[in-house]
Request: fold
Amino acid sequence: MGIDRAAIEMVLSFQFWRMAILWPLALLYCYARLNLAALFRRRTSPREHFRCRLVPDSAGGNFRRPICIITGATSGLGLATARALVGEGYHVVLAGRCAESLYRTIQEIKQEYEEAHLTTFQVDLSSLQSVVKFEASFKQWLLDSDLHPSVQLLINNAGILATSSRITADGYDQMIQTNFISAVVLTSLLLPLIKNSSLPSRIVNVTSFTHLCASNMKIDCKKFSRNTISEKYPFASIYEYSKLCLLLFSYELHRRLRAENLSSKISIIPVDPGVVHTNILREVPSCLSQLAFRVLSFLHLLQSPEAGASSIIDAALAPSNVSGEYFFGGRGRRMGSSSLSYDAKAASQLWLNTSIFEEQV
Ligand SMILES: NC(=O)c1ccc[n+]([C@@H]2O[C@H](COP(=O)([O-])OP(=O)(O)OC[C@H]3O[C@@H](n4cnc5c(N)ncnc54)[C@H](OP(=O)(O)O)[C@@H]3O)[C@@H](O)[C@H]2O)c1
Reply:
């Protein structure tokens, strides 16, 4: 009964219809562009789709297992990505907020890959303190291990679609902090280790086609901090906005690394997995989320986590000359993101604002 009331309330909200109408339209728009580009054989020619497999370290003649950190590795796309990268020979560091889920994830992956190299760390990405603690324990673990003190791949994957307003202990909207702020802070904390890699390294940020629906809001990260969230939580708009911010940040980081002549050594790749059957709709009343998945499946738009993760794997294993490109649609395909996401002025303003988070840690 409670669930039904929640479903009715949601159906009566503007945000629900924004999500139900604008998001599928944005997705169809992306596929239409991808198909048109394929038709004209622009960037999408099959020979461009290749993944860089691991090779033995030429310096020592030994196989040096690269390290990959994946946030939100206990479910959906993160789990599918972790499994695939174990198969590619990575030492995968699973970052998740629940010890039990991390344990279950390890068991699940080891059923397929008995010899998998896996390490887990507990981190709550809605807490800056927890992110800092994670980075410190990870660094200590690296020092104690016989692994090279560097990181080859960081995948900022964790994300939520929160349907109610929650303010974190740091004073931010929980969805903005989980989807965007923590990715920025974790990236900047790990950047020295990423720069220390002798192999080309990559930062892959999992964004979403929903960023196309984000309007030209004033880019201000304090916008959704304490005292500024209205009673009617604009959850769909905030989700879109968090993904747009992650894109702006990705392109700005790419530009800054390019200015330092580091963009061929460190690639920054934003990825959009499309629509994937995961737990992302866990806060949406189940009758509505099930209906949404059924409709999307009927329209052949819904993918399995393994299929959705293929864009993430493409980005993770991409050659080092694709930094700053937006991966969408699998098979190594890339396309342009929204024009707003390429706004260098907005991105540098956002970059200035992100220094607030770093001062907080
Ligand atoms: N599914 C889609 O259609 C779709 C489309 C475009 C983009 N994306 C993006 O893809 C990413 C992965 O989502 P998914 O679809 O795989 O959803 P999911 O199945 O719900 O997985 C989300 C992951 O993030 C973790 N997470 C959430 N809050 C966290 C926190 N505070 N601290 C640490 N970990 C946290 C979750 O951990 P717990 O399991 O412990 O909660 C879970 O492992 C998200 O960024 C999402 O926005 C998804």
Remarks:
- The first strand starts at residue 67 and ends at 71.
- The pocket of NAP is lined by residues 72, 74-78, 96-98, 101, 123-126, 157-160, 178, 206, 208, 273, 275-276, 278-280 (CB under 6 Å).
- The radius of gyration is 20 Å.
